[in-house]
Specification:
With 228 residues, the chain is an all-alpha fold. It is built from 6 helices and no strands. It is globular, with a radius of gyration of 18 Å.
Length: 228
Amino acid sequence: MVLEFFRRGSENQLETIESQIGQMLSEARHSFDLAVGALLAGASASAVDKDVHKTDRRINKLERKIRRELVVHVSVNASGTDVPMVLAFMAVAKDIERIGDYTKNIWDLADQGVDLSDAEDIDILTAYRDRISLLISQTAQTFLDRATDQAWDYLKEADGMVSEFDERIDEFVASQRPSTFGVPRALYYRYLKRITAHLMNVLTALTMPVDRLAYYDEDRRDRDPLDG
């Protein structure tokens, strides 16, 4: 919905920034797959260390580039109708940067010696990995296509996943099993929850007015996300 404000002009610049956001999401998925592979697939954390952190730096560099370009755009094109677009893209870029941070947190678990590749619940752990990896790709394509209806569908799906992650986190926090069992899982699901929430924030640029950007905040556990 916010992007509608900017369809009237400067289309080439809009497409450039949208492409950079798509690139950020592509990099985020690459880093996510590497990090979770180190945790769940038995890959060496040290083997993917450089790739994960180099990818994160590329994400950060793209965020700064987008912010600079948006500041220049506002300075040169002092149009009030562009302000919602600028706020939206800055918020979206920040959300993707945060995805990169949580991906590094997942890698940190593997680097600390956590290896869930032979875990009894590996099928569940990897199923969530696959869903999040796909959601990153779907969010990127939906954003680039400005597919509002599709965005609503993914928001509904992702909101259900966030509820599932909350249930998993509560389960492992209250578990009587050894901390070496419950703590890594609680953290893993916590990071997946935050990544999902930030993807939802990206999608709100297509579905919400500017005053409701980043509506899916982590502290709004009592929200009805589909309440217009």
